[in-house]
Amino acid sequence: MEDENDSNPILPPSYSATVFANIPINSPVLRIHAPDPDSGLNGEVYYYLLNQSNFFAIHPKTGVLSVIHSLQSLAKRNLTFTVAAADRAWLLFPSSRISPTPSITSVTIVVQPKEVQLHLKCTAVDDGCTSNRRLCAKCKLSSDDRSDVALRRCQLHLAGEQAQHNRFVVARSSDHQSGAVFDVLLNDLRLAVSSVHELFVDMVCDDGAVVRKNASTVSVRVAPSCSVFSFNNGPKLFNASEALPVGAEVGRLLESLIIEVASNVRLRIVDHSSSLQQRLPFSVNENTGIIYVSGRLDYETETHYDFDVSFDVSDCNRSFLLRVTVQVMNENDNFPIIERPVQCLQTVVTPETPIDTVLCSFHASDADSGRNGKLMFSLSTATDYEDYFFLHEVSGKLYLRRQVPKAMCDRTFNVLIRCSDDGLPFRRETSVVVPFSFFKISLSKGLKNAGGKVIMPEVSPIASNRHSPVFLDSDESTVFVREDVSIGYIVAVLRAYDLDDGLEGFV
Asked: How far apart are CA 473 and CA 481, in angstroms?
């Protein structure tokens, strides 16, 4: 059977391509491919342009369309021409009846303005990135033509293992006339240890005409935990009661998460003066960051302490200072003290002594401040003599309240003066008894000798213990105590009195 040239080369109806106006001469644009089912000479396909073009040429055997002239003058234009594909038999015997006609296709070339070279450069930050300073690298995208708006259509993303685990992210930082800047940020804070990571950065720019790609690599270092501390909130403030004993906890500078991440951190208190160590009643645990009381706190001496704590990180040989303020809270921790000797103007009272005569003036002091240092006096006497005396609770002056009848003369008894502060809570601080404040006042007939001087009778105390102490409060009291109170904390104050005189009446 003789082979016949009975098939045409098979061509698609059209081709299209986009090129830049500055494409180099002899650069390929596209390839026309037209297979022919025939064999031998009948299947050999040749390509040619039906209408001549001054800018393009096609290779007769490969079908590759190439640029043969500069396209600078054709920017933003579409060029359309026709390409034919014929088998060899038709070329040799064009008038033969058995030779099919050539196949043709339409080719459209879109000429874009000149291609701008895009440059991608990524640079890691010098100190490395940390959990609170997440910037690891800067990627700058620039072009040869500053007017290229395609830069704004470019996107960067990470490839490889780091992108798969979402350990780092890329965020657009800013756009400039000369390019765009992208930030590579640490996303997985668990990597906040000393480590180095190789990142692959891909660039894709789609300006509608052609998709341009580029890539870059950058080696970033995640800094050790020396940089995990951020003191943006200012000084650290703690409150400490002046009643806290030595060894009590004041506050914590480190949370458990930071301790786990920053295990190489050591803490210490920084001395700013030679006398600071003697007067600073605090210490800090170098590992846990817990501040403890190391000396006596006294609100009346020092209301607050300001000092620095240094976070020393051995891995990177760096230190960070944190300002710490401890505010001392006022407590009612001091008892009133009645001053001695007592200033008594008159100790012998006669029936002729006028009412409202000042017999004695008591003075007391309290080291506490404010309400805790506000003092009040009270009088405790035997029932038979209670109506004869009045003690001003603020001034501490003892007055004769009523005239003494002659029947009460030649008797001696004891007067108990109490001084309490006005602190809170009430049961702890409002009933401070001064046991050494007994004072004896003698009632006498006022005998006078020939010289007109007052003769004081001898005082003979009654040594009879006839009464039992009696509690001022209820017989049964329930006291609630928190489980976290420190040693030395006063949980209750019990008050009692005794009607006996002298030491027998001391409770």
From this structure: 19
Domain boundaries, given as residue ranges, for the chain? 14-112, 118-223, 236-329, 337-505
pLDDT digits (tens, 9 = 90+) for 307-322: 888 877 666 667 778 8
Beta bridge partners of 129: 222
HEC assignment per residue over 109-159: EEEECCCCCEEEEEEECCCCECCCCCEEEEEEEEECCCCCHHHHHEEEEEE
Question: What pTM was estimated for this model as a whole?
Answer: 0.40
Helix residue ranges, H only, 342-486: 426-429
> What are the C-alpha distances in Å from 311 to residues 194, 230, 253, 323?
18, 11, 10, 11
Query: Residue 279 carries which DSSP code?
Result: H
β-strands 282-284, 236-241 pairing: unpaired
In whole angstroms, what is the distance from residue 336 CA to residue 123 CA?
A: 72
pLDDT digits 0-9 by tens, 80-91: 999 999 887 777
3-state secondary structure of 454: strand
- The CA–CA distances, whole Å, from 261 to 186, 226, 265, 269, 462 equal 16, 10, 9, 22, 76
Sign of the Cα torsion 138, 143, 146, 149 reads: negative
Sign of CA dihedral 291, 297, 302, 304: positive
**Rounded mean pLDDT of 113-130?**
81
- How many residues can be counted in the chain? 507
Residues β-bridged to residue 175: 180
Q: What would the pLDDT profile of 357-395 be if each residue is shown by its tens digit? A: 887 888 888 878 878 888 888 877 655 666 777 888 888
Confidence (pLDDT) at 278: 59
- The fold for domain 236-329 equals Immunoglobulin-like (2.60.40)
**Whole-number pLDDT of residue 311:** 78
Pick among 1.10.3210.10, 3.30.230.10, 2.60.40.60, 3.40.190.10: CATH of 337-505:
2.60.40.60
Looking at 2.60.120.10, 3.40.50.620, 2.60.40.60, 3.40.50.300, the CATH number of the domain 14-112 comes to: 2.60.40.60
16 CB-near residues (< 8 Å, 6+ apart) = 107, 108, 109, 110
List the helix and strand counts (H, then E) for the chain.
5, 33
CATH number of 118-223: 2.60.40.60
Q: Confidence class of residue 209 from pLDDT cuts 50, 70 and 90?
A: low
